[in-house]
Amino acid sequence: xxxxxxxxxxxxxxxxxxxxxxxxxxxxxxxxxxxxxxxxxxxxxxxxxxxxxxxxxxxxxxxxxxxxxxxxxxxxxxxxxxxxxxxxxxxxxxxxxxxxxxx
Length: 103
Prior knowledge:
It contains three helices and four strands, in the order βααβββα. It has 103 residues and is α+β, with helices and mostly antiparallel strands. The chain has one domain: Double Stranded RNA Binding Domain (2-Layer Sandwich), CATH 3.30.160.100. It has a four-stranded mixed β-sheet. α1 runs parallel beside α3.
């Protein structure tokens, strides 16, 4: 499974953020890594310099031979947004692959 992190204006791509993303997606990789080709992470600052709940993280997972799935998190901090979206992505993938297993 390949990881690609994309940052927009207002967010900083750092080594610590990259490590945190990889750690947050550890469960996803262990459970679904062989079924996914790539996970793209999009980090952005929604409100700009206004502050508040403004860091958005979107994770797009691409299962082999299927349409991509998306999970999103919104928080005051980029790390919290990554954590939220990683948990949501795990739930979405469990739901997707669970349905396929029942067919």
